[in-house]
Design brief:
The chain is an alpha+beta fold. The protein is 25% helix and 29% strand. It has three domains: 222 residues, BirA Bifunctional Protein, domain 2 (2-Layer Sandwich); 130 residues, YbaK/aminoacyl-tRNA synthetase-associated domain (YbaK protein); 95 residues, 3-Layer(aba) Sandwich (Rossmann fold). The radius of gyration is 30 Å and the shape is globular. The structure holds ligand 9G3. Belongs to the class-II aminoacyl-tRNA synthetase family. ProS type 1 subfamily.
Length: 566
C-alpha cells in the first residue's frame, strides 16, 4: 500500500486529553480519532489490527465448536423487562424510542436476545450443548469514559453464550473456553493472568477474568509469589490464623477522645496499634440494617459482604441515618451496648482482638479494654475483608502480592440466571421442560488494542507484535526523485508482495526525518530503507523491537525476512 494513498494522520504533539501512553500513541500514530467522550473511529491502521485480533479469536472459538453469528444492536425493551434488567439498570443502559414510541435499548450485552432466540428454536436436549458467539459493537453509557479505548461508551466485544442440559456439560465448555482464552491472549503477545473473579450482579456459580498486567490497569490482582493462585482482589479469600495475645482481659473503660474520628486519629491518640481498634460500620443490605465489624487496619470488601448477606444491594448507612439512629457520628459507633437490635457480622480478624478499642456510640469518647463476646455478641464471623499484600496465600502456598491489571476477558457460569426468568426451556429425555444451563464469555476486542499498545511501545512509538502489526514491512524510500531509489523500491515492493508480505511503502514527498519519526510512531516490526546506497543494491534494515540497524544486499532480503517472520 502506498502511504501517500492511505489515511494515517500522525501527530507530533502529545494530545493533552490523552492521559495514558497507549492512548497518546494510538492518537499520535494515526490509529484512532475521538468524536465525543468514549466514542472513537478506528482508522485504517487500527482496523487492520482489530481484524487480526478478531481472526485469532475466531480461530480459537471455531476450534472449540463455538459457531459465529451476529445479533442486532437494537434490542426490544420487552426482553429486558423479562429479566428485570430494564429496571435494575440505570443511566448506563442506552434507551431510545423508535418513531412509534416503542421503547428499545442499544445493546450493552446480549444475554436477553440470545436466550430469546434459543428458547424459540432449540427445543430438545438432543440439540445441546450449543455454543454461539459474535463479534459486535456494544454500547454502555459509562459515567466516566477514560483512557481512550480502555473504557469507551461504544466498543467491540466478542461475546459467546453456551447452552447445556447438565452442569457437567457447562463445566466442560467453561474449561474449554478458559483454555481457548489462554491461547488467544498468548497468541496476542500479551502478558496476562487468569484470575478468580466476581460473577457480579449476574450471579451464577463462578467466574474468571483475564487480566493484562499493566500499572494503569483499573483492577487489582492478588496473586501468590509461590503458586498459581491469582484472584481479583474483590474475590480474594482471606485465610489467616490470627495470633490471639495471651494478655489478661482488663476492665472496660470509657475515655475522652475529643475530635478523634478516624481509626488512625483514635489509635494515635490512645497510643494503640490500629489492629486493636474495632472498626464498626452500619450497612443497609436490601434496606435491612446490619452491623459489620473489622480490625481497624483492615478494609471491608463490600462484594464479600453482599455475598455473605445474599443481598442484591448494600450501601453504607449515611451520616444522617446514623445521626438519626444513634445521635452520634459514624466514627463514634461501637458494638458495645449498641442500642439497636441489629445482626452483628464480624470479619475473622476481630476474633483475635484482646483489650481492644471501639466507639462508645457517643462523640468525643471511646471505650478501651473491649473484648469481643465478653462485652458484645457477634452473630457470625465471616471473611469480610480485602486481602492485604503480605497476607498468606489462601491456597496455603506463598505470600500475597498485588499487581494492577486491565480486564480483557471475563467468563461466567450463569446457570439458569437468565433461562429461569425468561422461561427458556428445552425438553429433556423424559419430555420434561428444563431451563437451559448457561455460560457466557466475553473479550473486549477494542480494549485489546489499547492493552497491546500499553505493553508494546517505547518513547518513540508503538512496537506491535508481528502477528498483530497492521503491515508486516515498512518500505521507506528516502528520495522519491532519485531514479535508483525508486527503481529498487518498486522492485522490492513487487518482490515482497509476491511473497505475500503486507507492505506499507512510504512513497511520500517528505523529509527523511519525518518519515523515520512516523515509522517509529506507527511501529511496524521491520523497516527497509531505500536510500543513497540503492545503486549498490544495499537496503538499510531497522528492527523496531530492538532498534538494531543492519544493511542487506537486495538479493538476500527475502531469505532474511523469512528468517525474521519465521
Ligand atoms: C447492562 C449494562 C452494562 C453491563 C451489563 C448490562 C456489564 C452487563 C456484564 C456482562 C456479562 C457478560 C456477555 C459477554 C461477557 C460479559 N455491563 N454486564 O450485563 F445493561 Cl448498561 O456483560 N455478558
Amino acid at each position: 500500500m502506498k502511504q501517500s494513498r492511505t489515511f494515517i494522520p500522525t501527530m507530533r504533539e502529545i494530545p493533552t486529553d490523552a492521559d495514558i501512553l497507549s492512548h497518546q500513541l494510538l492518537l499520535r500514530a494515526g490509529y484512532i480519532r475521538q468524536h465525543m467522550s468514549g466514542v472513537y473511529s478506528f482508522l485504517p491502521l487500527a482496523k487492520k489490527v482489530i481484524r487480526k485480533i478478531e481472526n485469532i479469536i475466531r480461530e480459537e472459538m471455531d476450534a472449540i465448536e463455538a459457531v459465529e453469528m451476529f445479533m442486532p444492536t437494537l434490542q426490544p425493551s420487552s426482553l429486558w423487562k423479562e429479566t428485570g434488567r430494564w429496571d435494575s439498570y440505570g443511566a448506563e443502559l442506552f434507551r431510545l424510542k423508535d418513531r412509534h414510541e416503542r421503547q428499545m435499548v442499544l445493546g450493552p450485552t446480549h444475554e436477553e436476545v440470545v436466550t430469546s432466540l434459543i428458547r424459540d428454536e432449540v427445543k430438545s436436549y438432543k440439540k445441546l450443548p450449543l455454543t454461539v458467539y459474535q463479534i459486535q459493537t456494544k454500547f454502555r453509557d459509562e459515567k466516566r469514559p477514560r483512557f481512550g479505548l480502555l473504557r469507551g461508551r461504544e466498543f467491540i466485544m466478542k461475546d459467546a453464550y453456551s447452552f447445556h442440559s447438565t452442569v457437567e456439560s457447562l463445566e466442560d465448555k467453561y474449561n474449554e473456553m478458559m483454555q481457548a482464552y489462554s491461547n488467544i491472549f498468548s497468541r496476542l503477545g500479551l502478558d496476562f493472568r487468569a484470575v478468580i473473579a466476581d460473577g457480579g450482579t449476574i450471579g451464577g456459580e463462578g467466574s474468571h477474568e483475564f487480566m493484562a498486567l499493566s500499572d494503569i490497569g483499573e483492577d487489582t490482582i492478588a496473586y501468590s509469589d509461590a503458586s498459581s493462585f491469582a484472584a481479583n482482589i474483590e474475590m480474594a479469600e482471606v485465610k489467616v490464623e490470627y495470633a490471639k495475645s495471651k494478655e489478661t482481659l482488663k476492665e472496660i473503660v470509657k475515655v475522652d477522645t475529643p475530635g478523634k474520628r478516624t481509626i488512625a486519629e483514635v489509635a494515635d491518640f490512645l497510643n494503640v496499634d490500629p489492629s486493636k481498634v474495632i472498626k464498626t460500620l452500619i450497612f443497609k443490605a436490601d434496606e435491612k440494617l446490619v452491623v459489620v465489624l473489622a480490625r481497624g487496619d483492615h478494609d471491608i470488601n463490600e462484594i464479600k459482604l453482599k455475598k455473605a448477606l445474599q443481598a442484591d444491594e448494600i450501601n453504607l448507612a449515611t451520616e444522617d441515618e446514623i445521626k438519626e439512629m444513634l445521635s452520634c457520628k459514624a466514627g463514634s459507633i461501637g458494638p458495645v451496648k449498641l442500642p439497636l437490635d441489629l445482626k452483628v457480622y464480624a470479619d475473622h480478624g476481630v476474633e483475635s482482638i484482646v483489650n481492644g478499642v471501639c466507639g462508645a456510640n457517643e462523640d468525643d469518647c471511646h471505650l478501651v479494654n473491649v473484648n469481643p463476646e465478653r462485652d458484645f455478641a457477634i452473630d457470625q464471623y465471616v471473611d469480610l475483608r480485602f486481602i492485604n499484600e503480605g497476607d498468606p496465600s489462601p491456597d496455603g502456598n506463598g505470600t500475597i502480592r498485588f499487581a494492577k491489571g486491565i480486564e480483557l476477558g471475563h467468563v461466567f457460569k450463569l446457570g439458569t440466571t437468565y433461562s429461569g426468568p425468561m422461561k427458556a426451556t428445552y425438553l429433556d429425555e423424559y419430555g420434561k421442560a428444563q431451563p437451559y444451563i448457561m455460560g457466557c464469555y466475553g473479550i473486549g476486542v477494542s480494549r485489546i488494542l489499547a492493552a497491546v499498545a500499553e505493553q508494546h511501545n517505547d518513547a518513540n512509538g508503538l512496537r506491535l507484535p508481528k502477528q498483530l502489526s497492521p503491515y508486516d514491512i515498512h518500505l521507506v524510500t528516502i528520495n522519491m526523485k532519485d531514479e535508483a531509489q525508486t527503481k529498487l523500491s518498486e522492485e522490492l515492493y513487487h518482490l515482497l508482495k509476491s511473497y505475500r508480505y503486507d507492505i506499507l511503502h512510504d512513497d511520500r514527498d517528505e523529509r527523511p526525518g519525518v518519515k523515520f519519526t512516523d515509522a517509529d510512531l506507527i511501529g511496524l516490526p521491520i523497516r527497509l530503507t531505500i536510500g543513497k546506497r540503492a545503486s549498490e543494491g544495499i537496503v538499510e534494515v531497522r528492527f523496531r523491537a530492538t532498534g538494531e540497524t543492519v544493511e542487506w544486499q537486495k538479493e538476500e532480503v527475502t531469505e532474511k525476512l523469512q528468517a525474521f517472520f519465521g
